[in-house]
Design a protein that fits this description.
The protein is of the alpha/beta class. Helix content is about 30%, strand content about 25%. The protein folds into 3 domains: about 260 residues, Glutamine Phosphoribosylpyrophosphate, subunit 1, domain 1; about 190 residues, Rossmann fold; about 160 residues, 3-Layer(aba) Sandwich (Rossmann fold).
């Protein structure tokens, strides 16, 4: 997830809109400053590197970029600039270096592009562009070079202008993206969107384009959301939008949020925003990695020859939510990769007797890559001579420097202390790893792999369907908010989801919540059940729904209300509340988890809790 912004027009801002009139001291005085301020507002989308490209009639194209946060970027003074684009990066392809920072340019430095998303076929395109000079390791850099081909006729017919060139290049890109392109000597910003967000801001004599309205809300509240497949040109004469090559009108609406809410994209809390970002973050997690037809995945990780075939055990080490992601994954490793998989709380992990280091893979799951307990476990595994691997969200984090290999979950920055979108992306990444290991070991047939990959492909859409049902969850949260305690149950893949659901609720609402393997209820916890202790159950595919429902009924018999996440097409008539989970097979429990995230959020919100910064907790726990 990266942040992009573009601005064209008169340069001075006044309260309520951009105009050509004199600005007060607090308002930006140049195109570069407007773009730079927009980037600061977008920094929540990434902060690995930042850059701008400014275009002026006399000065031509000026590009400045560097690794580090937006504040570290010094924007050049280009007094005649009338348009500019900017980018703040969350690295996916290539480490956060100056060279990998956006904007990227063509060979001669005439065209500059900023991009959010992933160009899945960039390696193939790069091979086709072998006579071009590439200066970065990014997927993005193919775009300015492809535009160059169209503009100079090397590959295209050479009569394209910037708008036509972007349209043609767009046809060649696979994946999800939002791009802004500018060119020396051209007074337009040309933008295109497919799968990644892009919104236009309409000011007086000025226009903006950005990943999120937050970027330009201090200048204008009139916005137009572009749709997938739209290409638009922002020029001094206004904005033109095209779909399938034909001009189209898109509605302009007025944003009513206040500045504080704007930072959170209009949501009251980062946590709710991040819950709602899951379709986009999951798309990024999966982008370019699924070969559904071939029944394989490309995670860009490698193991020594024969290592996976001889593997005796995968040991996952993690804490908190990441530990529950590990528990989900362990079941997938056993089922899909045919290898024994165990999960340990990182602070409890020791290599242990009776194991063979060179036939063990220790997988550390950590969003931050900085959790001291998890790093401690990795160090103990390394000391024992085991091969170590990390699944993390954070490029350049400590864990990535201490393990033998890493897979990035690409969820984008998570600001709410309670992990939400990163849990989903961790499980999705680990599921892909399980398929890769299973295929490599010959334990997973192509047809079975295909079916799992189809489930994963359906994940972002299924999560969106759950998010569309938020009202139902809010009503349930209102009804049960004052309960004495909450119990979460499931079986199989439903167990880690029940545990995660309980953790989410307890950490942000401060209510007593516990997760259990449903079969365990009757071995003790049932003594706690009363009419004032709702039971929330995972009743989906992959979670042995019928057996779980038997245990739910045992609780209902003691008067407990029951809420269930139920696979579409199934019905458990005695439930007090039934949340429908779309049909996505092995990841259905993961989709059910989105209901539990929303439930936790709304219970906590009803109680006015400090949702993004719960008491006594920190986002990254760097002490043992
Ligand atoms: C709970 C939560 C924590 C973290 C845990 C591990 O919502 O966020 O339980 O999951 O502290 O953190 P990472 O994944 O950064 O190692």
């Amino acid at each position: 997830m990266c942040g992009i912004i573009g601005y064209i027009g008169e340069i001075h801002a006044t309260d309520g809109g951009v105009t050509g009139e004199a600005a007060d001291d607090d308002t930006p005085g140049s195109v570069g400053e407007i773009v730079h301020r927009g980037l600061k507002n977008l920094e929540y989308r990434g902060y690995d590197s930042a850059g701008v490209a400014l275009v002026g009639a006399a000065s031509g194209l000026t590009v400045a970029k560097r690794s580090g946060e937006v504040g570290a970027l010094s924007v050049p003074d280009v007094p005649d600039a009338t348009l500019g684009v900017g980018h703040t990066r969350w690295s996916t392809h290539g480490p956060p270096t100056d060279a990998n920072a956006h904007p990227h340019t063509d060979c001669v430095g005439d065209v500059a592009v900023v991009h959010n998303g992933i160009v899945e076929n960039y390696e193939a395109l790069k091979r086709e562009l072998s006579d071009h000079e590439f200066t970065s390791e990014t997927d993005t850099e193919v775009i300015p070079h492809l535009i160059e081909e169209e503009l100079t006729g090397v590959d295209g017919d050479g009569d394209a202008d910037l708008l036509a060139a972007v349209r043609r290049v767009e046809d060649r890109l696979e994946g999800s993206y939002a791009i802004c392109a500018v060119r020396e000597g051209d007074d337009r910003i040309v933008v295109a969107r497919r799968g990644s967000p892009l919104v236009l801001g309409r000011g007086e004599d000025a226009a903006f384009v950005a990943s999120d309205v937050t970027a330009f809300l201090e200048h204008t509240r009139d916005v137009t959301y572009l749709e997938d497949g739209d290409v638009a040109a922002l020029s001094p004469d206004g904005v033109e939008i095209f779909a399938s090559g034909e001009p189209v009108e898109r509605e302009t609406e007025t944003v009513t949020w206040e500045a504080d809410a704007a930072e959170k994209g209009g949501y009251e809390h980062y946590m709710r925003k991040e819950i709602h970002e899951q379709p986009e973050s999951l798309r990024q997690t999966l982008a370019g990695r699924l070969d559904v037809d071939g029944g394989d995945v490309d995670l860009d990780v490698s193991f020594p020859p024969g290592f996976l075939a001889d593997l005796e055990e995968i040991r996952i080490v993690a804490c908190g939510t990441s530990y529950y992601a590990g528990r989900y994954a362990a079941q997938l490793f056993e089922e899909l990769a045919g290898v024994r998989a165990t999960v340990e709380i990182a602070s409890e992990y020791e290599f242990g007797a009776g194991r063979t280091p060179d036939r063990t893979l220790v997988v550390a799951v950590t969003q931050s890559g900085e959790t001291a307990d998890t790093l401690g476990a990795v160090r103990r595994a390394n000391a024992a001579g085991a091969r170590t691997f990390a699944v993390t969200n954070t490029l350049g984090s400590t864990v990535t420097r201490e393990v033998d290999g890493t897979a990035f979950i690409r969820a984008g920055p998570e600001i709410g202390v309670a992990a939400t979108k990163t849990f989903a992306s961790q499980v999705a990444t680990l599921a892909m790893l399980a398929v890769a290991v299973g295929r490599d070991r010959g334990a997973l047939a192509a047809a079975d792999a295909r079916s799992v990959l189809e489930d994963l492909q359906g994940l972002p859409g299924a999560v969106q369907q759950v998010l569309d049902e938020e009202k139902q969850v809010r009503e349930a949260a209102r009804e049960y908010r004052d309960s004495e305690a909450f119990f979460f149950v499931g079986r199989a893949l439903g167990v880690p989801v029940a545990l995660e659901g309980a953790l989410k609720l307890k950490e942000i609402s401060y209510d007593h919540a516990e997760g259990f393997a449903a079969g365990e209820l009757k071995h003790g916890p049932l003594a706690l059940v009363t009419p004032d202790t709702p039971v929330l159950a995972v009743l989906t595919d992959g979670a042995r729904a019928d057996e779980t429902m038997n245990n739910v009924t045992e609780a209902q018999t003691r008067g407990a209300p029951a809420l269930g996440c139920v696979s579409a097409g199934e019905e458990f008539g005695t439930l007090d509340v039934s949340f429908e989970v779309p049909d996505v097979g092995v990841v259905e429990p993961l989709v059910a988890n989105v209901y539990l995230q929303l439930f936790a959020y709304h219970v906590a919100n009803e109680k006015g809790r400090s949702i993004d910064k719960p008491r006594n907790l920190a986002k990254s726990v760097t002490v043992e």
